[in-house]
Amino acid sequence: MSDTDPTSFGAEQLGNEPVVETPEDLAEALGADPNAPKTIDTENKRLDDGVNRCPKCASTDIQLRPSTGMLVCLFCRHEWSEERVEERIAGNGSLQDLKGTHIASGATAINTEAAGVLTLKCAGCGSEVIVNIDETTSARCHWCRHVLSVNEQVPNGAVPDAVLPFSLTHDQALAAIKQFAGKRKLFAHRKFKQEFAPENVVGVYLPYMIIDSNASADVVGKGEIETRRYTRGTGDNKTTYYDADVYELSRHVDFTVDDLIIESSAERANMDTFVNTNNVINTILPFDTKNAVEWNANYLVGFTSEKRDKDTETVQPLLEHQLLSIARSEVMSSTQRYDRGVRWETERLDVHGTRWVSMYLPVWLYSYYHVEHGKPMVHYIAVNGRTGETMGSVPVSHPRLLFAALSIGTVVESFALAILWASV
User: Fold this and answer.
1) Nearest to residue 367, comparing CAs of 358, 376, 359?
2) What pLDDT does residue 8 have?
3) How many CB atoms neighbour CB 288 within 10 A?
4) Pairing mode, strands 62-65 and 70-73
5) Do 393 and 371 contact (CB within 8 A), yes or no?
6) Whole-angstrom Cα distance, residue 252 to residue 328?
7) Which residues pair with 343 in a beta bridge?
8) Under 8 Å between Cβ of 159 and 295
9) Residue 148, Cβ neighbours under 10 Å: how many?
């Protein structure tokens, strides 16, 4: 029989083992890379069977009611909403404590070889229903008429982590577009005025990355303070000179960014103003992303959507560019005394932590294809599906613009001549 004290023996053995207090410690103890991106599971487990039922009567005929932003059962008229994702993803922690890369499961890397077709087993009758997820996220069973929805976060970018439902109705969007185009009819192209059909406005869920960041930046440059201003020369050969004190500047700033919105569709991120006016979509920001809810394909019934095709690695350079812009803005208040301006020559950005969430945002979109002098252009008028903020472009009549410019110039010139004549 051993004389060894089992309590002492156990304490000695535990002393040689790494202390595991957090999931990160466990991953490191198991040999995992502690700096590897961490995944946040956002899949709506309640809908994993593909059948989205009304919680009151179990019907599957469900769609969004934009006037309330809630789902409504078309059978019993019961209304409800999925849970908000903000608390599930962000928790109660501060962004200042955000470290490392955290990627929600719907924002993980896209597999271009992933199958574009899913086979769902109907929970109502057991039949198999094929859904082409490149085109739609729901289909009706051809036997029992149940509506089956794709709720699994397949790796092709079709199912995001969250969706921000429409709260602006079709009629409200129609009125906003009519008002926007009406204010610009004076100089609008004649063909546009003839073919303008605002009732063709379409509700679209556009894919975005919603990003939280914890970062710091250092900027170094030169600032100038004017000390003297004087003029040399005579007549038309006068030249103004400035004397200024030049200072070396350096600034450091720690900052956090909550819910930065960046496009995750390559087509919408293409800001080539020679062929489209995609840039107008960014002018209707912001969206109240804190009210986004868990994914439910029924939010898309009656609307169209675009699939995400950009990964976090693709979006990262744009994120860093925007974070640097924010850092410059943050230090601007400390450079007011340099009245001749500041020129930053060296910039450094350190991103301590990021959190990525894939989200569908609601936009009412009217498009008009216009060709002039053989050059095609797609004009868009976009309406924020939550706030009603509207911006867009319409094709203009260049002869009318020229005539207006000449007319205004003639009036101004006549007015100036009249003043001069009166002063003689």
Assistant:
1) 376
2) 38
3) 13
4) antiparallel
5) no
6) 10
7) 222
8) yes
9) 27
**Residue whose C-alpha is closest to residue 247's, from 348, 347, 343:** 343
Q: What is the pLDDT of residue 92?
A: 79
Tell me the one-letter amino acid at 10.
G
The DSSP secondary-structure symbol of 276 reads B
Q: How far is CA 134 from the centre of its chain?
A: 21
User: Which pLDDT does position 50 carry in this prediction?
Assistant: 63
Query: Beta-carbon neighbour count of residue 264 at 10 Å?
Result: 28
Parallel, antiparallel, or unpaired for β 162-163 and 293-294? antiparallel
The answer to whether 298 touches 63, Cβ cutoff 8 Å, is yes
Q: Give the pLDDT confidence score for residue 330 in this predicted structure.
A: 94
Neighbouring C-beta atoms of residue 177, cutoff 10 Å: 23
Tens digits of residue pLDDT in 343-384: 999 999 999 999 999 999 999 999 988 877 778 888 899 999
Give the Cα separation of 403 and 191 in Å (integer).
18
Residues (pLDDT < 70) of the chain are 1-35, 48-50, 112-138, 142-146, 148-156, 271-277, 398-424
Classify residue 409 by burial, with Cβ atoms within 10 Å: 0-12, 13-18, 19+.
exposed
Tell me the pLDDT tens digit for each residue of 292-308: 999 988 898 889 888 88
pTM (two decimals): 0.79
b/e per residue, 339-372, with b = 16+ CB within 10 A?
eeebebeeeebebebbbbbbbbbbbbbbebebee
Residue 267 DSSP code: H
Report the distance separating Cα 122 and Cα 144, nearest Å.
Answer: 9
Q: How far is CA 407 from CA 395, 404, 412, 418, in A?
A: 21, 5, 9, 17
Give the per-residue SS3 of 213-262.
EEEEEEEEEEEEEEEEEEEECCHHHCEEEEEEEEEEEEEEEEEEEEEEEE
Pairwise CA distance, residues 170 & 199, whole Å: 9
Answer positive or negative: Cα dihedral of 186, 188, 194, 197.
Answer: negative
pLDDT of 14: 44
Closest Cα to residue 367, out of 378, 351, 377? 378
C-alpha neighbours within 13 Å on the C-beta side of residue 364: 27
Looking at residue 266, what is its pLDDT? Answer: 84
**119 burial via Cβ count (<10 Å: 0-12, 13-18, 19+):** exposed
State the amino acid at position 25 in one-letter form: D
Q: Is 120 helix (H, G, I), strand (E, B) or coil?
A: strand
pLDDT at 2: 39
